[in-house]
Amino acid sequence: MSGTADATEAGTATVPASGWDEPEPALCTSALRKTYGGTVAVADVDLSVPRGAVLGMLGPNGSGKTTTIRMLLGLTEPTAGSVELLGHRVPEQTGRALPFVGALVEGPGFHPFLSGRRNLLRCAAMEPALFGADVRGAVQQALERVGLAGAAERRYRSYSLGMKQRLGLAAALLVPRELVVLDEPTNGLDPAGTREVRRIIAELHANGTTVVVSSHLLSEVEATCTHAAVLQGGTLIAQGELKTLLESGGPNLLVSVSDNESGLEALRQLGVPARVEGGELRVELSGTDSPEVIAALVRAGVGVYEARRDRAGLEEIFARLTEGET
User: Fold this and answer.
1) Tens of pLDDT along 141-186?
2) Backbone phi, psi, residue 119, to 5°
3) What's the domain range around 271?
4) Are residues 35 and 141 in the same domain?
5) How far is Cα 53 from Cα 242, in angstroms, rounded to an integer?
6) Mind listing the pLDDT tens digit for each residue in 277-326?
7) Which residues touch 279 (CB under 8 Å, ≥6 apart)?
8) One domain, residues 238 and 273
9) pLDDT under 50: residue ranges of the chain
């Protein structure tokens, strides 16, 4: 397959999603498909993730997120289509790419009777980049990074769900990675743990690492991701820069005025859709711009106290995409 995949083929996105121009993406798929008997889990997905991006993979339960991630990493063989991971074809060249990939998929799996530290030491022993290096130092650094240094000698079976997630994240971060894939990384974490994961993702992004995060927490995706891909029923229905996706909901202007009714009448005469919301005017800017709205209100003698741009939140866009809203 070529080094790029068309991110915005006709019919792929329900809302405008420009995709991205990236000559050498960190990963891409072409017509990726997975079926189980007569059930289609993933249907012809064309995904492209630019290097250095933080991609939030979104979708309801059963939308195909985890199956897609498993195919990206060579854990599940596609029924059809192709995957390219860090420039290598998967599954044929998986071994060339995986040393540069850290992943936490469907929850971590460790030996229950070993301590957290000993589990990580076993993981470190399989890392080519740590051969002959300070393995214990790398393990200690990873434990500290995820806040488990104080529980490193406890047996894994005594860990809470959140602690198990942290240890899985530590294993993914034992060595510097070009790509980190995290499937529901905040599952079981308390608010402090969630903030730590957000901090780690920000650090990875600052260092140029590409990150793919599968999550049902839309607020976390909106806070941490630069790009998004939305799946529904195994189909990729939108992808692109998060900013572009959010703006596809239509820009709005929130205006605080001296008289809402007079303001609405002035905007109606201009042909601009507006409504009163929370004591302010919410003005749709699809056919006009902010200066024209303000000028119309002033000409009508309506006092303008404050005006600020607003956009749809990720939750609203997500609902519109996955529930067929228009």
Assistant:
1) 999 999 999 999 999 999 998 899 999 999 999 999 999 999 988 8
2) -60, -45
3) 252-310
4) yes
5) 11
6) 889 998 887 778 889 999 999 999 999 999 987 766 677 777 777 775 43
7) 256, 260
8) no
9) 1-22, 325-326
Secondary structure of residue 32 in the 3-state scheme: strand
**Pair of tokens at residue 202:** 């920000």
Whether residue 222 sits in one domain with residue 92: yes
Q: List Cβ<8 Å contacts ≥24 apart for 260-263.
A: 262/300, 262/301, 262/302, 263/297, 263/300, 263/302
Place of tokens 């240890």: 167
239 and 256 assigned to the same domain: no
Helix (H) or strand (E) holding 321: helix 314-322
Closest CA to 280 of 306, 261, 254: 254
CATH number, domain containing residue 199: 3.40.50.300
Distance in angstroms (rounded) separating the CA atoms of residues 77 and 144: 35
Q: What is the pLDDT of residue 21?
A: 47
Last residue of a domain, one of 247, 271, 296: 247
